[in-house]
Design goal:
By secondary structure, the chain is an all-alpha fold. It has a single domain, classed as Tetracycline Repressor, domain 2 (Orthogonal Bundle). The protein has helices at residues 19-43, 46-53, 57-63, 67-92, 96-113, 115-125, 138-154, 168-174, 177-195, 201-217, 221-235.
Amino acid sequence: MTIFFTAPLATVEHMPATARGQRTRRLILESTAQVFDQQGYAGATLNRLVESTGLTRGAFYFHFESKDALAVAIAEEQATRWQQLRDQVESQERDPLRRLVSLICRTAFAFRDDPTIRAASRLLLDRGLIEREMPRTAPWWRDVVAGYLRAADGDGQLRDLSYLQLNAQAAAERGGVDRLADHVVSQLASIGLMASKRPDAQFELQYVTWAILLPAMCADPATAEELMALVRTLLHPVSAEAVPVPDL
């Protein structure tokens, strides 16, 4: 399973000490992300990358010594933006399931509107071509999702999910919350992969995913209804027409 989302990883690069240097570095990241988004790692030549910035080669290489270094920086920038999105969601929502739904739904807009997010996903897909170590992707997202689900389980918001464990002993020891977290992250990864190719298709996929998951995981059908209303509001801000959620 490949997860196209990043967690922070330090790199050793020329770090701009001035505001002008920071602006230049930002320009390089934003400009080259559009090239990587459109052409992938292999198709994005260094000449094309430098040309997209409007800078001289000297100015470009001052900040990034290679295409690989640039690829890592874009992946790390995606990680920063995911963390910022999480911080924003957590400042607005206190309930763990609402945080989970809100965070994942908002990734749809990030994929649609942000070339850097999409470029990082393509680069992570192409990580076998990149000689530098790319950020590990799954752990951050899994920790976030599992944290929300464990908090919801502790509040009695989830059904007994032990049936999700194939192994009976594991089911008795851990329940199915970890398996549900794995599934949510896997679905998110699949949707993210499609989003890099067809950004608008992910909205329907997210809706279907939540329509299946929420009635199956929520202990109270009313909670599933409320969360589906949130999904509709987030994915379709103009129209939040109610659709009944089946009682499993």
